[in-house]
TrEMBL record:
It comes from the Archaea. This is Phosphosulfolactate synthase. InterPro entries: Aldolase_TIM, ComA_synth, ComA_synth_sf. It holds the Pfam family ComA. PANTHER family: PROTEIN HEAT-STRESS-ASSOCIATED 32, PTHR48413. Belongs to the phosphosulfolactate synthase family.
Amino acid sequence: MRDHDKVDDYITEAGDLGFDIVEISSGFLAIDAADMVALTERVDEHGLKPKPEINVQFGAGGASSVEELESEEAIDPASAINEAKRHLDAGAYKIMVELEGITERVREWRTDVAFEIANGVGIEHYVFEAADPPVFEWYIKNFGPNVNLFVDNSQIVELECIRSGLWGKKSSWGRTVTYTRE
């Protein structure tokens, strides 16, 4: 059996199990962007919604320490943005933005990178990983309550309370609002 047959089997099984979105993760792999885009195309061809991941830190995820990640060269945000554009052209549903190298496993948050990525193709195309309340509160304060965030399921209530303005720290409580024109 060839590798692409295994990929097709996996995607088919995901659909058979009722999944409609398939994340295509890349943080731990040395894989060419063209191959990642081909996987996005393949998921789309199967009628599922591809959600590829872009990152600015190779080796991100798991138990990597700040020191280990610092020893790896950071990925230029422009390169991640170009890859996001290629994925969107290939049928990506949303682009997952890996948080390592931006707000996790760094000595100081790289909010400049978050802004650069957000502005690269439009915030509506992204889902930002936000591992803990200070991170998702920062995204809401800077990108608004409708920003797409990926959080641990144990944090959904807290996230939604911050989004709605019902809860937050001194700088955000009661200050999160939306306006829908009727």
